[in-house]
Specification:
334 residues, 7-stranded antiparallel beta sheet, 4-stranded mixed beta sheet, 28% strand, alpha+beta
Length: 334
């Protein structure tokens, strides 16, 4: 087994991989909580990402692939391994949706892209995994392409949204995503290799994707869009953002919904927690938001242990009073 220091020496020889030692993970997550990572790397392209993941896996060093850090809670003791950030894997382009292979235009030729999109419907937008969802929605809005408005205001990255099959205002990523490219481990080649496919709707589920729990790493995703009216698209997107603001999503550092909703149970988890009398409950610097039962916020100086205590409290109370098992949506790491 190679050490992190030995692997870092290999990465230093690759100018496309940024290295950060003893990196505070609190600065990398929306919770603003977490200790330090022994090493955090930022591959600059898909090839360097595949190279880095292959080296790490062959060295048998623990690793965690981090997107926007909006759905993860790192331990107070940090992560004694390597964090692989997709932050630098950014880029958006317009492609044809029918085959998904023929590229219509690059972003730098906006006028040509608009003309082609108008003549070839539907179109698709391809975005690399590290691209923020905010940038994706803004790009679509600028090009007068409709279909992504519900994701306006969603924090995090394209890769993370695809990995979790993010759901916003009744629309899931799987409702609009087309082709996805990813890396997966090949035992035969002893390396991470790139794959690409169009997954049928039945391959997805509520807050689950063909990537959840598989070790696959999303590289890019194509989203089906339609030509629309720019002003109407902007108005719709702004309304969704305002609704998030009204619900208090941006008031404090948090990771959005802590638990998944179980529709079979009959009501949203936030309402369940509210009726259990837990809204506003505190533990240290963490608090179950007084404005939303399914959000735990960092009210100031919260630790990972504080948040986990509140998570455990909600689960125990729901089980005791309702016989219902709450399922976490956020990912615990470290």
């Amino acid at each position: 087994m190679n050490s992190i220091a030995q692997i870092a020496e290999k990465f230093k020889r690759n100018p496309k991989i940024g290295l950060f030692f003893d990196e505070p993970l609190s600065a990398r997550t929306s919770f603003k909580i977490g200790g330090k990572a022994a090493l955090l790397i930022e591959p600059g392209d898909e090839e360097s990402l595949a190279f880095a993941l292959t080296e790490i896996r062959n060295a048998k060093i623990p690793y965690f692939v981090l997107g926007g850090g909006t759905n993860v809670l790192f331990s107070d003791s940090g992560f004694d391994g390597i964090i692989v950030s997709t932050k630098k894997l950014c880029g958006i382009e317009i492609v044809e949706s029918h085959s998904g292979n023929e590229r219509i235009a690059q972003d730098q030729d906006c006028a040509a892209a608009d003309q082609d999109v108008a003549s070839k419907k539907p179109a698709a937008i391809r975005a690399l995994a590290g691209t923020s969802m905010a940038a994706l929605v803004s790009f679509a809005q600028e090009k007068a392409l409709s279909g992504l408005e519900e994701f306006a205001g969603l924090p995090g990255t394209v890769g993370g949204a695809a990995f979790m099959n993010a759901r916003c205002f009744g629309k899931e990523i799987s409702d609009t995503v087309q082709k996805i490219s990813w890396l997966e481990w090949s035992q035969e080649e002893g390396a991470f290799v790139q794959r690409e496919a169009v997954f049928p709707k039945e391959a997805w589920d509520y807050k689950k994707s063909p990537f959840t729990g598989t070790g696959r790493v999303v590289l890019s995703a194509e989203f089906i869009v339609q030509k629309g009216d720019k002003a109407s698209i902007a108005q719709k997107a702004a309304a969704f953002i305002q609704e998030r603001k009204d619900k208090g999503h941006y008031k404090f550092p948090c990771a959005g919904s802590v638990f998944k909703n179980n529709r079979a149970f009959g009501q949203p988890t936030g309402k369940i927690i509210d009726e259990l009398g837990l809204k506003g409950e505190r533990c240290g610097g963490a608090q179950i938001a007084p404005f939303h039962g399914n959000i735990i916020v960092n009210a100031g100086g919260a630790s990972s242990a504080d948040v986990r205590a509140l998570v455990d409290l909600c689960k125990a109370r729901a089980k005791e009073k309702l016989g219902f098992d709450l399922e976490e949506e956020i990912i615990f790491a470290g």
